[in-house]
Amino acid sequence: MLPDFAQAISAPLQDFERHLLEASARIERWFRLEWQDHTPPFYASVDLRNAGFKIAPVDTNLFPAGFDSLSEDTLPLAVQAAMAAIEKYCPDARNLLLIPDARRRDARYLRSLRRLSTILRQTGLRVRYGSVDPALASPVRIDAGDGETLLVEPLVRRGFRVGLADFDPCSILLNDDLPAGLPEVLANVHEQVLLPPLHAGWALRRKSRHFAAYAEVARRFARQFDFDPWLVTTHFVECSEVDFVGGAGVDRVAAAVDRILRQARARYREHGIDEAPFAVVKANAGTCGIGVTPVRDAAQLRRASPAERQAMASGPSGRAVDEVVVQEGVRTVETVDGGVAEPVVYTIDRYVVGGFYRVHTQRGPDENLNAPGMHFVPLPFAASCHLPDHGESVEHAVNRFYVYGVVARLALLAAAVELEQTDPDPSLYG
Amino acid sequence: MLPDFAQAISAPLQDFERHLLEASARIERWFRLEWQDHTPPFYASVDLRNAGFKIAPVDTNLFPAGFDSLSEDTLPLAVQAAMAAIEKYCPDARNLLLIPDARRRDARYLRSLRRLSTILRQTGLRVRYGSVDPALASPVRIDAGDGETLLVEPLVRRGFRVGLADFDPCSILLNDDLPAGLPEVLANVHEQVLLPPLHAGWALRRKSRHFAAYAEVARRFARQFDFDPWLVTTHFVECSEVDFVGGAGVDRVAAAVDRILRQARARYREHGIDEAPFAVVKANAGTCGIGVTPVRDAAQLRRASPAERQAMASGPSGRAVDEVVVQEGVRTVETVDGGVAEPVVYTIDRYVVGGFYRVHTQRGPDENLNAPGMHFVPLPFAASCHLPDHGESVEHAVNRFYVYGVVARLALLAAAVELEQTDPDPSLYG
Hints:
The structure is a homodimer. Chain A has helices spanning 11-22, 24-37, 75-89, 107-121, 207-225, 250-270, 299-302, 306-313, 381-386, 397-421, and strands at 4-5, 43-50, 55-61, 95-99, 126-131, 140-143, 149-154, 156-158, 161-163, 171-174, 193-195, 236-239, 279-283, 293-295, 324-328, 334-336, 339-348, 351-360, 375-378. The first copy, chain A, is of the alpha+beta class. Chain A is globular and about 65 Å long. Chain A binds chain B through residues 24-33, 35-36, 72-77, 79-81, 83-84, 86-87, 91-94, 118, 121-126, 351, 382-383, 385-387, and chain B through 24-33, 35-36, 72-77, 79-81, 83-84, 86-87, 91-94, 118, 121-126, 351, 382-383, 385-387.
């Protein structure tokens, strides 16, 4: 199953891709050296968009679900990468506590959890599930709807450790991005490794910090490999203290949209791109891209109806949005089976371990595809992300995937830098 | 392409396999802890034989060729494993010098070298080829016969370093097992990493040391996981100062055969195996299993004709054999496409990265398959070596391959222990 690049890829982007392929050995060394200085998040998924004239990450998820949508062929890579990660954090680990997303009980999510557990167990760990829900008093068995069940147990604190009644883990793997705040039960866990750290959750994390770190990482990479960083980055502006319903700060958001569209138009002209740019307004803290609004004109915001404002104000999990990021929009030129598609790349530790296309047949190339009705087409991503085929043309899917793997790893490196910069105890990073 | 297990697997071996599958998470942790104490060889290939009542490694090659026979699907695993290895030895490595086997110029070997280079380049290394041949005065281009050529260059010493005229590598990867002795040009290279170390070459290495280390590793593993270590080991005896032509020491070899056959018969009775055991007599130092003689009766040796003695006396690369290992023979019950087959498992660092079946249609199940006329059937080994399918029966190929991966890694661990024990400077291992 290969994507259909219905629209041509621009000459500069083709040059860029060719350049990356030719430099692949140097690029791998560049990453190797970067990973000496920065610790990758335990796992991540990176949403990419390929506009035909640029390829950029639009979301870097540090609590990925969707492991069930990876091709089975790529599982050994995930196991091997997880082995390397576990060895780093807790080499004699026997027990791992996995904390699922408390808000998700759907069959698909449970399948992802099971797949993730399979990977972790195969690294030599006993895996059990714990819940941060203080209301959970006794173990509960969740029915996955396919005959299998998942036992989720209440967390138990013991001094600076957390575990289950009869289970003392070495590491705790969070699969809940904590939008509602830091759970009391996980505070001051000093004797165990929390993966990723608590400040990776949306209670503290901000997209603006990630994209700022990404801009810097991409700038360094682009300088090293001699290309225009705009080919892999997007302009963005952060707006805080916005009250979409009351109207406070909406003017600032509209002005930010104007500025982003102006910058994008200038770049489009510079690169000879004959189309109208758009901006997206997204919650600065929040998952899944829900609440992403594409805007082609700042007047759209200024003239928004009360109902539209209400919609903008409610972000992921219903939390009121008072901080937004206005970002240069990146349309996608890829289609799979006639549906608009965007690649999602999965990493464990520093390694690309797989990916899939997120496909939506009811959405346009400018729109957010992470929405009800989407489906997933696993791709044999891993092979090509590691091994470009220098004998094939740059347009060949194998080589495009290598480029995707590089851009996704730039986002991963940015997440590592972001987590260092936002760590409440920066002394840990010497 | 799956092997045909024409003959039934015995009940005890089935129990053993089931036991390993059930304990897979604990087994992976056991290996994780072992690799904290022991450094795996950079790469290896392990020949296994499955007799239907036992599965044992018969050769652990520390300078593997045959990378071209691995399935392409498993290459990303090899790249990822090589990344982990390079990071350990030389994290900022830019250049790697690969020293091919000086005696091999055949197309198949050159394909293997190219594949190995592809893997290494994808970890971010520049790879060039150097020759230990002191007679080579200038670079020589070797024709692989398929339009591609390989440039092999003379080594250049600079103090405690070795490289090429314009190439200063961080690591030197040997793919020559040095049966003829240690090349002068590689002596006292103290400022670079030699992989594997020089004493892994047949100039110093002895099979008896490997099998002794393996017996100890297997004994510990079997005690931990509660099974009879004979299911994965073979009895062996070392005989030195043997002169097959002159006759000196041949009696000792014959006595060793008697002893091994006696031991094997006792074990066969104990396990209810209704067949006659055999022994193999192999050179204690040497590659490829050439010179492996199956013996069913010590009288075979005592009565050997001068021509037969002459054959026994000439080991790999024509070197006279004066040290042998007499080992319990392991027939193979596996067939692929009607040919007798044995699995070969490849590792890089601590990871299983692929494998294939060595198949010979003209040889019997008791015989050495590593002989002219053999062919290779790549297998999607990697997936199953990492991920047993607990939903499938133990007879399922996927699960058998997991077991093979475990036994191969025991041999790998034994090689690590062996190289520590035989290191000329043991203080390095603290």
